[in-house]
Fold:
Amino acid sequence: MIYTMDKIILIVVAYLIGSIPFGYLIVRSRGGGDIRETGSGGTGATNVSRRAGRAAGVLTLLLDAAKGRVAMLIAKTVAGDDWVIAAAAIAALAGHIFPVWLGFRGGKGVATGVGIFLVLAPVALLCAGVIFVAIVASSRYVSLGSIVAAVLIPVFVWLQSVFVEPVADLRPLLTASIAGAALIVFAHRGNIKRLASRTEAQI
Structure:
């Protein structure tokens, strides 16, 4: 499809919303320095919790999810085109992981992905969330639960379309979910190495 200027602007806006570095700003405002220099190196809720406390981590989680949700609500309201919405979803997630404001070094994308798929595929998100909770509860590795849940999102998106809510053209949503999973797994590459060497931090 051909992207007109208004569609391109919408995708850029989604990226900029996703790139708001809430975790970085929260830790910085509390005198904690650059959150990316400690722990896993991410700006997400788990790393913020370790640096600035549970309340700061919960606030980061909610704000990161909210920006994903807001980006998608804007896209769905304005775009009226499933492929543009899919592109905006990928852009918002990429914004969180590669924020322009922080030299393209951001978080892992999990909470923002939750906000995105809460709008686009809530049933698939719920199923992935159950898997996430089960893995974290049994292993105490948040990163492992996040990676597995992200990889399963495209599977649950397909199952949701087959068994719950049929979608006339599943390709845009499936593309967004596959690209989103790939981005989240890429952002967790350091965690994957630590999991393999058994040096990953547990909760």
Remarks:
- The chain has one domain: 5-196.
